């Protein structure tokens, strides 16, 4: 390891899975970095649902991070179960929980647990919490700089935007903005489901459930700690999430309005809405243009959603972000010349992201076709040939 690489000032904006993986793999290679995160702490907001980590992306990133063995006992292999239902709740397709040796190595892990694993592997002080980035620029010396909300200016040799869909770093590289996909989610949570909501727990199973009909869907995902996260998915104008049925001050009225969207659906499926606890949160789904890329700007790059935001219908977002972080760290560790390192990373990342974004966009269309159940049953049958009950 050259002294030059050890002395680089690497600033990472965003402490999501991608940014933390980048910081961890750099640390493994003896390269310090600083992560600037808007959140006040690791627990200041809900971290979201569960992730299935692919062997060739998320797990590979954890291998480079030296955390794969620590990950396994924290994960839930049984979360690989999949149920595909119609609006009558009849099971149209079922992938049972994976068994040892069946080749289905995509164990689930809650986002919160994954974040704790990554944070616990970093030197104290690597993440600087509560640091809002007010501006980014290329300074007079040709180096990227951050200006924080308190007026502090930070100069870096490498600036990495790992700051998600509405990245503050991306405008240094690209004028692309996320575009609304035409689909919105509303998500809610059920707690202690095996005791308090046993019928819902049985309907969903140990992994994920998708119920599809009438160009809309009810999706449910088993999380750790006896929780099920529910997503109401509809095609709607972008303003629907702001002025539609969601009233953050009146969850009961919101549930009633959402139930009105599914009047003739099975009551067991409707219970996914009726039984939710706490707030129902609108999530309009946005995406960057498929194949988004940029010309090299010295010392600046992006990873994860900041680079290739896509809809969740390929299940690739966090996996790609972690792989981006690992591969960027490896490139920085391998090359004394920064531009050689960043070019090597982007050359591999761009086509990989484009392929996943294309798949995601195609799947979004499939999920909201009038005959979505048949389309997806055929697709899942092809993907899991020999491993599903039909």
From TrEMBL:
Gene3D superfamilies: FAD/NAD(P)-binding domain
Assigned EC number: 1.14.13.-
Cofactor: FAD
Binding positions for NADPH per the UniProt entry: 45
Positions contributing to FAD binding: 52, 111, 305
All residue ranges annotated as the FAD-binding domain in the record: 10-359
HAMAP family for the chain: TetX_monooxygenase
Name assigned to this protein: Flavin-dependent monooxygenase
Organism of this sequence: Streptomyces endocoffeicus
Lineage: Bacteria, Bacillati, Actinomycetota, Actinomycetes, Kitasatosporales
């Amino acid at each position: 390891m050259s002294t030059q690489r050890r002395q680089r000032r690497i600033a990472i904006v965003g402490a999501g899975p991608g940014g933390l993986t980048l910081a961890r793999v750099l640390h493994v290679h003896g390269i310090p970095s600083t992560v600037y995160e808007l959140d006040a702490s690791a627990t200041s907001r809900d971290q979201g649902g569960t992730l299935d980590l692919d062997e060739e992306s998320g797990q590979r990133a954890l291998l480079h991070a030296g955390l794969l063995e620590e990950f396994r006992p924290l994960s839930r292999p049984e979360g690989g179960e999949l149920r595909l239902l119609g609006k009558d709740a009849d099971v149209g397709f079922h992938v049972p929980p994976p068994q040892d040796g069946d080749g289905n190595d995509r164990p689930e892990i809650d986002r919160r647990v994954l974040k704790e694993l990554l944070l616990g592997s970093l030197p104290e002080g690597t993440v600087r919490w509560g640091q809002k980035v007010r501006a980014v620029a290329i300074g007079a010396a040709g180096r990227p700089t951050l200006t924080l909300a308190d007026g502090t200016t930070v100069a870096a040799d490498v600036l990495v935007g790992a700051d998600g869909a509405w990245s503050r770093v991306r405008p240094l590289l690209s004028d692309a903005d996320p575009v609304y996909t035409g689909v919105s989610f509303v998500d809610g949570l059920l707690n202690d489901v095996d005791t308090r909501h046993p019928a819902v727990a049985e309907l969903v199973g140990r992994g994920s459930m998708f119920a599809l009909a009438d160009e809309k869907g009810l999706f449910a995902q088993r999380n750790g700690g006896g929780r099920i996260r529910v997503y109401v998915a509809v095609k709607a104008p972008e303003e629907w999430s702001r002025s539609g049925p969601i009233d953050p001050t009146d969850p009961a009225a919101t549930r009633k309005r959402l139930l009105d969207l599914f009047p003739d659906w099975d009551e067991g499926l409707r219970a996914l809405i009726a039984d939710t606890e706490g707030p129902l949160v609108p999530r309009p789904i946005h995406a960057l243009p498929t194949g988004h890329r940029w010309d090299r700007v010295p010392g600046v790059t992006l990873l994860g959603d900041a680079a290739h935001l896509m809809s969740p219908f390929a299940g690739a977002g966090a996996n790609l972000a972690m792989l981006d972080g690992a591969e960027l760290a490896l490139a920085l560790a391998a090359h004394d010349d920064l531009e050689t390192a960043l070019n090597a990373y982007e050359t591999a990342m761009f086509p990989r992201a484009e392929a996943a974004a294309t798949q995601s966009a195609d799947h979004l269309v499939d999920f909201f076709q009038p005959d979505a159940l048949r389309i997806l049953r055929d697709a899942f049958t092809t993907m899991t040939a020999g491993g599903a009950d039909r």
